[in-house]
Amino acid sequence: MRRVVAAERALASLAATQRQMVIAHLDGVPTRDTAARIGISADRERQLREGLFRHLRDRLVGAMENGVRVKLKHHERPVMVTTRLNRPMQSRANAMASSARIEESAKQLTKLLASLPKDGARVVDISPSLARAILARNRDNRSIAKNRVDRFVSDMRSGAWEVNNSGLGLGLDGELYDGQHRLHAVVRANLTVRMLVMSGLSRESRATIDQGRPRSVGDNLRILDGEVHGARIVGWLNAIEVITTGRSTPLSHAMVRQRLALYDDGIRWFISHAPRTRPFHRSTVIGAFVFAHRKFPKQTQEFALGYATGVGLPAGSPVLTLRDYVADPVRLRMDSSRVISLKALRCLSALLQEELIERLTPSEESVAFFRVEDMSRTGVGDASTS
Q: Residue 383 domain-assigned?
């Protein structure tokens, strides 16, 4: 009853002309002048408006119970009627909304299961709500690998997601047996994507899922793009990703293709000239060189040749400093992959700026020194948004 009174007060607070225009706007009932023109009597017009007043009051009461904001328009000037709920009422409203979403998702899942062949497969559009409904049937599965979900999300958002023979596996009992990472990615990306859905799997089949050796991104780069040195390229590009973003999420095949287009010149040179012997072949160091090569190709090549051979390096040379550091396994074990890359960039920047290195420390300023601005604007490579 208190909510009804509050709703009536909210309406009564409007001027009479505003209230009439609000009711007419929301429910399509003509104004008094229009009513006269189309032949509606004054009594009939009043009856309509009294009924609409009660109808609008009920709508405002419903808004209060569900914790929403109602925007009433009087011509072009908005009249705001805002409702506030106490915590118990807000919790109940949230629960009601959540229940409605769950019910809708359950309907989608029921429709999907009914459309699938008993022991076959078909390609299905998987929406975020349908993904949530299927994940509700995800029991006794392995833990989620965040890096894998991140890669799937990146491919979905960039339009690189493709349908293949790996998708979702549903059991005879309706449970999810395979594909939880893909479903979590659909929810996070908030996109509808197409996937192959296999149904009718026996419970015993779970022991055979994901037993083969998965193809690495380097394998795909070699198979699909003809890059014989795919594994080395991926290692270098992953190092650049860590340098520029601070994240150690491995790149997907689509992401590697994007980065390869940016760093192609440096990668081709280092495929021919990078050291291949331990410990100087480390991808964290060569990746740092590839990153710097885009802005200072000639200087980076000269530095890399001295680093690879160690011939004719004077005492105090930043190149020699880096070689001594990389050759010391104790110091390397103490540093993360990103720190190793930053120290390599620090040595290279010291040579270019003719500085002496008294103590080798990682430097974020070196990243900024070698960054190419057009990459940060495109959001690829140096300032990846994946």
A: no
Cis peptide before 117 (omega within 30 of 0): no
Task: Tell me the per-residue pLDDT of 213-253, one tens digit each, with 9 for 90 and over.
Answer: 667 888 878 888 888 888 999 999 999 999 998 888 788 88
Q: What is the C-alpha to C-alpha distance for residues 313 and 222, in angstroms, rounded to an integer?
A: 37
352: nearest Cα among 309, 310, 386, 301: 301
Query: Which residue, of 177, 204, 231, is where some domain finishes?
Result: 204
d(CA 35, CA 46) in angstroms, rounded, equals: 10
Establish if 209 belongs to a structural domain: no
Of 56, 84, 112, the residue that ends a domain is 84
Strand partners, 176: 170
Q: What is the pLDDT of residues 113-157, one digit of tens each?
A: 777 777 778 888 999 988 988 888 888 777 888 888 988 998 898
More confident: 228 or 43: 228
Burial class (CB in 10 A: 0-12, 13-18, 19+), 323: buried
Residues 107 and 234 in one domain: no
Q: pLDDT at residue 78 above 90? A: no
Q: What are 380's two structure tokens? A: 């690829």
Element (H, E) at 50: helix 42-66
Q: CB under 8 Å to 354, separation ≥6 — which residues?
A: none
Can you give the pTM of this predicted structure? 0.55
